[in-house]
Each structure stands twice: as structure tokens, then as C-alpha cells.
Amino acid sequence: MLRLKAFGGLALEDERPDAAGAITQPKSLALLALLACAGERPISRDKVLAYLWPETEPTKAAHRLAQLLYALRHDLHVDSLFRASNDLRLNPPVIGSDLQDFTAALERGDLRGAVAIYQGPFLDGFYLS
Fold first, then answer.
1. Is 108 helix (H, G, I), strand (E, B) or coil?
2. Exposed site from 6, 33, 54, 55, fewest CB < 10 Å?
């Protein structure tokens, strides 16, 4: 299972030794963080385009998103990484996140569990130019 870590930085953990490519790219990580923040609610492709390519012509931005989604699926060797077609959300059986675990712990009232998951400020040190 893939695991997105958003507390104390931003990284995608993959147990496979050959993991590389798209999972090391800032835009890929930013997309995964956006979708992890949304949880079970899907995000429209238009909103993703506005977040990741705000000053890019819409058709070019849509093409970049399509390339990014393809690269993630290809590099991670997972066809079912995302759920939905027009709207996007992560597929929980395939990719989990510390943010989802943190939120679930808070919803259960498990404050000790939430504190144990918290490893530092959300997206600490991560930025897109």
C-alpha cells in the first residue's frame, strides 16, 4: 500500500524498492496532498487545475493534469489510484495518508492516537514555485 505523509513535510512512501519518477515530483505530491485533504469528497478537475496551474491556459492545464495522472499511475504501477472520472479522489484501499488517519483518530475521540500520528506542521517546508 502507498502512504502519503503530509505532517512534517510531504512524501509518498512506497515499499517497492524501484519507486521513483512521478512520486518525487512536486506537482505530483501537491496533487496527492490536495486529494488527501478532500478525504471522501471528490475534487473537480477544474478546481485541481486552478490550484496547480492557475496562470496556464485551460486546455494546456488540462493536458498537464492528464499527463500527471498518467505518470502517477504508470510510475506507481497502480491503475486504480484515483476514484471517479470527472472528479478526483484517492482510492483508500490503494493509498492511505497520515492526514486521513489523524482525522479518523480525532473523529473517534482518540487524542493520544492523533498526537502519535502528528509528526510536525502540515506540509512543512513544501512549496510549489
1. helix
2. 55
In the chain the first and final C-alpha atoms are separated, in Å, by: 30
pTM over 0.70: yes
Could you report the per-residue pLDDT of 96-115, keeping only the tens digit for each? 999 999 999 999 999 999 99
The C-alpha cell of 99 is what? 492526514
Cell of 62: 488540462
d(CA 71, CA 74): 5
Spatial separation of the C-alpha atoms in residues 74 and 23, rounded to whole Å: 11
Contacts of residue 100, defined as CB under 8 A and 6 or more positions apart, other chains included, come to: 36, 39, 92
Question: For the segment 5-18, what is each residue's pLDDT rounded down to a tens digit?
Answer: 999 999 998 876 55
